[in-house]
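Researcher: Good morning. I'm working through a list of sequences from a screen, and I'd like to move beyond sequence-only analysis. For each chain I'm collecting a predicted structure so we can compare shapes side by side. This is the next one on the list. No need for commentary yet; just the structure.
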Amino acid sequence: MMQDVSQFIVIAPGAMGKAVEYAEGRIRERLGRSFPDYVFTIEPYGPFAEADQFAVIPIMNQRGSAGPNGEMYMCRPLDPWVIPAIKQVLREFELAPGLN
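Model: Good morning. Structure tokens for this chain:
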């Protein structure tokens, strides 16, 4: 029984951690307006941070979706446009207050 991906972890670029931490609520709000069917967790200081761009990691299983014997079920693969579209919104986001 496969479900659709509904959650993502967004990891800030290495040098932008503090600014992203400060703007975390606005980033989540902006992503929510663009992608209302998804839930985003923002990680300002993630271990997988890329040097100059946001990393977007889909959560491919769902909490509480274990089978009767504890099996975990993977989600359906994402459409190929989803992660690039999320990254585009993040690239366009201005970290200064009031611009988004």
